[in-house]
Design a protein that fits this description.
- The complex is a heterodimer of chains A (87) and B (567).
- With 87 residues, chain A is an alpha+beta fold.
- Chain A has three helices and four strands, in the order βαββαβα.
- Chain A has a four-stranded antiparallel sheet, covered by helices on one side.
- In chain A, a hairpin with a 2-residue loop joins strand 2 and strand 3.
- Chain B is 47% helix and 13% strand.
- In chain B, the strands form two sheets. In chain B, strands 1-8-7-3-4-5-6-2 form an eight-stranded mixed sheet.
- Chain B starts with a strand and ends with a helix.
- Chain B is built from 22 helices and 16 strands.
- Chain B is an alpha/beta fold and 567 residues long.
- The chains are: A alpha+beta (87), B alpha/beta (567).
- The interface between A and B is medium-sized, with 25 and 29 residues.
């Protein structure tokens, strides 16, 4: 299992569009991709879960990946959050 | 007459068409073959995706990218693993596809509508829409098609779902009335994008309105009249034509310089609250930013934003405005703006307490981060720094000294910034008004914040209904303060602007022009109207009006005089 903490840069938080971009980007990986925010952990491959977690601007989240390609999955997830999912 | 939320400006006169949603009844028959049920569900998903893609393509060309994305979002949501796993689990437990899907939707509607932020709450409407359309596919019920409504239709619905809106066009629909929804709901956004008047949140409209009934609506005030009299219809028709005329006239001011009738140029800029608003400024042909409130960066989080985060936000605005002036106000915390992690003590009189520059000069480490970020961003555009809540020279000097220290630090680190970055004062306290002559010698510009200034000059809490009537910038005390501040600024040759709501008040504008205000900072939506008002006044007639007003003793007299003379 690998994990990394990162802060959300999207002004309006992870609303529908960025959540969709994120979920789509990590979907091809075999590994489980989870997002830990506060004491909640949600499936990072699910846009519905991400939206439901209500992740706002400036919040620190932890991305947790587990599986055969966990390193690559984490790298992709972090680069997505860092780039603000194209917003 | 009924009143709801005016969500899209304009006047509509027409006949009502009710958009009734059929009751979708789910029959919970036992499922003998879960595999077949799963197949039935995935076929319905395919149909949904196919239909929605078609709708999205159509709406993309007819309305816009943003609206199309809402519909495409529905496909993503429906195909989401959390959604499909939930349905599969339900079907395996013996539920029908309809029931299993409906349950999963209920769960997400519950989660989303419990959320605190408006954007997430709105997603509940999307799930509701997806559910209703999926159930129609599974139950073989026809979808509502608005495309075929006759011209001059006023649509009435409980709520307009994104999928319903596909058929709406300006050619046939002249008004939209709904029982639920607010200014930022899908229906409102779509109505504004199409330029169709809309009134939302009308209680019981779906029971009071009937098919074929005549109605008129005013999408600004939120007024609706069902079965209007001939006189009312005539009145609305006149208003409608006047409104269209006005819209056409305002369009002429788009992208034009802001000039008075005798060709004196003034700056017309905008107030913004977050970096994204910069787009609205440019779309409205604003000439810059007169007030960028930085509180947004500090809200809804648990720690002070880092220098890098702040730098990025300021840089983004500076770059978007590409060389146009951007006045950024340093943190205005306290008063009614609370930021929990700063642990500011509860106060009996927060507006007279630990607020804005008082906090910043006391918590210098926090202030340093913001000022350093502002300096660094100044290398990417025309940034001006504005200090809020100034009451004495020491505070202005305190901020400027800190800036000098930071400039030195940046020089030694070879980080570029604007060496001549202007530092101005937000004039919003009676103390600042009284020493405006002294402040003008040490500040590079003034911006009069009329909202707080009115409150402090009149010593009135605008939230207190017992005294709220005193809160008006037409009070001679407030007008004299404004006039004095502008005169002091002019004497020292510094720019004086205004960033309160008063700057967009068409009644007050001639007075401000006569006093010599050089910069008007208004909301993006007020840019064209303000530019139009300014263009109607020349120095001589503005001065004459100012002279007349100066002789008046009460705010009622001032207000009625200005109202009479409005252009």
């Amino acid at each position: 299992m690998v994990s990394q903490k990162i802060t959300i840069k999207n002004e309006q938080g992870l609303h529908m569009r960025p959540a969709g971009v994120f979920a789509k980007a990590v979907a091809p990986f075999q590994s489980d991709v989870k997002i830990k925010v506060g004491d909640k952990t949600v499936n990072g491959k699910s846009i519905m879960n991400i939206i439901g977690a209500c992740i706002k601007y400036g919040t620190e989240i932890e991305i947790i990946c587990e599986g055969a390609d966990e390193e690559a999955a984490l790298k992709e997830a972090i680069s997505q959050i860092e780039s603000g999912m194209g917003e | 007459m009924m009143t709801g939320i005016g969500a899209s400006k304009g006047f509509g006169i027409g006949k009502i068409v009710m958009i009734q949603d059929v009751d979708l009844v789910i029959h919970d028959t036992p499922v003998s073959d879960p595999e077949a049920e799963l197949t039935r569900f995935s076929q319905a998903v395919d149909t949904f995706v196919h239909r929605t893609e078609k709708m999205a393509a159509e709406i993309r060309t007819r309305v816009g990218e943003k609206e199309a994305e809402i519909l495409e979002g529905h496909i993503i949501m429906l195909q989401d693993p959390a959604m499909s796993d939930g349905v599969a689990d339900g079907i395996k437990e013996g539920l029908t596809a309809e029931r299993a899907f409906s349950n999963v939707c209920d769960m997400f509607i519950g989660v989303f509508s419990m959320a605190e932020d408006e954007l997430t709450k709105q997603r509940a409407t999307d799930v509701e829409d997806i559910r209703s359309r999926m159930l129609k596919i599974l139950l073989h019920v026809e979808e509502v098609d608005i495309r075929n409504v006759p011209p001059h239709t006023i649509l009435v619905a409980k709520d307009l779902t994104p999928s319903m809106t596909v058929g709406i066009s300006k050619e046939n629909v002249v008004g939209i009335l709904t029982e639920v929804g607010g200014y930022t709901s899908h229906s409102a956004i779509l109505a504004r994008a199409l330029g169709i008047p809309a009134v939302l949140s009308l209680a019981d409209i779906t029971t009071k309105a009937k098919d074929g009934m005549e109605a008129v609506c005013d999408g600004e005030s939120g007024t609706v009249i069902l079965s209007p009299t001939d006189a009312e219809k005539k009145d609305y028709e006149e208003k409608r034509l006047a409104y269209l005329e006005q819209m056409k006239a305002l369009k002429e001011f788009f992208g034009k310089p802001t000039l008075t009738a005798d060709n004196t140029s003034v700056e017309l800029v905008c107030n913004i609250g977050k970096p994204g608003d910069a787009t609205a400024v440019l779309e409205a042909s604003g000439e810059g930013v007169g007030l960028f409130r930085t509180e947004f960066l500090f809200m809804d989080r648990d720690t002070i934003p880092t220098e890098e985060e702040q730098f990025q936000a300021y840089k983004e605005v500076a770059e978007k405005l590409s060389g146009k002036p951007v006045i950024i106000r340093t943190l205005d915390v306290g008063g009614d703006k609370e930021i929990p992690y700063l642990h500011l003590p509860k106060e009996d009189n927060p507006f007279l307490g630990y607020r804005a520059i008082r906090v910043c000069l006391d918590q210098k480490d926090m202030y340093r981060i913001q000022l350093r970020a502002l300096l660094r961003a100044s290398a990417y555009g025309k940034i001006r720094i504005m200090i809020p809540m100034i009451t004495c020279i020491e505070e202005l000097r305190g901020a400027k000294d800190l800036l000098e220290e930071l400039k030195e630090e940046l020089r030694s680190q070879s980080i570029s910034f604007d060496e001549n970055i202007p530092v101005g004062v937000m004039i919003e306290t009676p103390a600042a008004v009284m020493i405006a002559d002294l402040l003008a010698k040490e500040a590079d510009f003034f911006s009069i914040g009329t909202n707080d200034l009115t409150q402090y000059i009149m010593a009135v809490d605008r939230g207190n209904a017992h005294v709220a009537n005193l809160y008006s910038h037409y009070n001679p005390a407030v007008l004299r303060a404004i006039k004095h501040v502008i005169a002091c600024g002019k004497k020292e040759g510094i720019m004086v602007g205004m960033c309160g709501e008063a700057a967009a008040d068409s009644r007050l504008i001639p007075l401000l022009l006569s006093y010599g205000l050089q910069e008007f900072s208004v909301s993006a939506t007020s840019v064209l109207a303000t530019r139009a008002t300014i263009s109607k006044w020349d120095k001589a007639s503005a001065d004459a009006l100012a002279k007349e007003v100066a002789a008046l003793l009460t705010k009622e007299e001032v207000e009625s005089c200005l109202k009479k003379n409005v252009r």
